[in-house]
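Sample pair:
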Amino acid sequence: MKTLGVFFEVLLIICIIFVNMKKISATIIALNEEKRIAACLESLRDVADEIIVVDSGSTDRTVEICREAGCKVSIRKFDGFGTQRQYATSLASHQYILSIDADEQLSPALQASIKRLKSEGFGHRVYMMPRLNFYCGEPVRHCGWYPDMQIRLFDKRYANWNLRDVSEQVIFRDSVRPELIDGDILHHRCENRAQYEDVLKSHAAIKARVLAAGDEKIGVFSPFFHAAKAFCSTFLKRGGIFEGKAGREISMLDFQSELIAYKAARKLISRGSRKD
């Protein structure tokens, strides 16, 4: 009888571990997203077993909305996208992490794919999926905006976010191969051009600090060279020309963003040299 009791205890432990492996923790980083985060949370409702929101100081109803939806909310000062995402991952109870932004949603097809993985078991450690980006409410399939492959579902024991301030990504060992799953992340980048400009300016400021701290030499003409290169890449190489007005605006905004970033980096380097 004692042997039988031990057997059932071991079996129970194995069952608990097996069940936990099939659960997902969704992580979100947010700042003043009261208009968009409800749709994000709704798309996670039947997919995630817990939702963790790391808020960097919202002054609107973002935190209230998340708590009302049953999310675990942590307030943390923003110190870079990579570190913020990794902090959110560290709060997760479950092995598999689904990382999504407040302005993103899971398409019905992606929801179905993830639910199928949960029911059948995860056969891979890292999963990737395409992201369909929207500009002022319209889907954009050129400009380098689609398929815009994203690694957002991963086993936290084998993959994690790097700690970059901008252009952060999930990193993992060379032996790990991402598996493509069906369905899109729907990314609503902006409601209007002004909103997108604000986002790009914020990213440009972060990029400027990264550039200034790096080894790249930034000459007088560097800002204009990199800005022109960004425009040509988006408008010509990546097909922005086929997106009409949206393509032209996105290409010009990429030009402006690079110009701002390199000009700001040059100023930061100049200030540093004067102090030395």
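The chain is about 45% helix and 20% strand.
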